[in-house]
Structures are given as structure tokens and as C-alpha cells.
Write a structure and sequence with these properties.
single chain, about 160 residues, mainly alpha, two-stranded antiparallel ribbon, 2 strands
């Protein structure tokens, strides 16, 4: 395994354009802390969606759906940026845009339910609690979200 690590480091140094990461994986505490920040942002946006003025509510629902899907689009969400983390594919290469979106698809469904007044918000809240609980349980147990496995990604410390 040491030879493979040495080879990866050498390739990363000689070819930075390849986006190879030899960075260590993020700790569970870092992942959970970043996850909570992102969850707070999402819940704040969802709460603003309670505004019953139709055009305004739709604006916050759209914002919530956009954030849910694209929060890692540049390689790191707000929470990950705060803790100096980024998303890469399982081999350590720069994750592609499809992987970055795929890892957050689970959060999109509930965000879209908020389009429907009151009942949609209640369904959004219930599904959010379930999804966030399951993802947090996976983080606590394994250090990875279910969505990391689905998108074949991992979170590493920025170097």
C-alpha cells in the first residue's frame, strides 16, 4: 500500500492538473460539524419557505432546491469550506460535477415538496428529519454518508 501512496503523491506533485488528492480523509467530527452547518442553512431556507405569499414562498422553495442539489458543486459546501474540507472521488481524484450533484439528490425531493402550502412544508420537514437523521447515523457509524457511497465520493482535508 505504501508504494501506491508514494506513486499517487508523485503523480499529484508532477501533474497538478489531474486533480489527484493525497489529502487525508476528513475526521468524523469535521464531517459532522460541516454537516450540521449545511443542515442549519437548509432548515433556515425551508423556514423562510413558510412565508405564505405565493411568489415569495416559491422563491425560497427554489432557493432551497438549488442549495440542496448544488451545495457541493464547486467541491465543497459552506460547512466544508468552514472546516477546510472538499469532496473528491473514491480514488482521490477531483470529483466530477455529476458526482457532486448525485451525492445531494437525496435532499432535493423534500425541498421540492415545500412548493405545496402547509402540507408540503410538513412533509418536507418530516422527510428532512428522516433523511438528515439517516445520513448523520451513517456519518457517526462509518464516517461516510450514504450518499458518498451512492456517488462514489469521499471528503478530505484540503492540503
Amino acid at each position: 500500500m505504501g508504494d501506491q501512496d508514494s506513486l499517487m503523491r508523485k503523480m499529484a506533485e508532477e501533474h497538478p492538473e489531474m486533480g489527484i488528492s493525497v489529502a487525508p480523509e476528513a475526521t468524523r467530527l469535521q464531517r459532522i460539524s460541516a454537516f450540521f452547518i449545511d443542515a442549519l442553512i437548509m432548515f433556515f431556507i425551508s423556514a423562510l419557505g413558510l412565508i405564505l405569499i405565493p411568489g415569495v414562498r416559491i422563491l425560497f422553495v427554489a432557493l432551497g432546491a438549488f442549495y440542496a442539489l448544488f451545495r457541493d458543486y464547486k467541491g465543497a459546501s459552506v460547512g466544508k469550506l468552514i472546516f477546510g474540507l472538499r469532496v473528491v472521488d473514491v480514488s482521490g481524484m477531483k470529483a466530477n460535477k455529476g458526482q457532486l450533484i448525485k451525492r445531494n439528490l437525496i435532499f432535493l425531493l423534500s425541498a421540492l415538496l415545500a412548493v405545496f402550502p402547509l402540507l408540503g412544508f410538513i412533509a418536507d420537514l418530516i422527510i428532512d428529519v428522516i433523511v438528515y437523521f439517516l445520513e448523520l447515523a451513517a456519518l457517526l457509524a462509518t464516517g461516510k454518508r450514504f450518499s458518498d457511497r451512492f456517488a462514489k465520493t469521499k471528503v478530505v482535508k484540503k492540503v
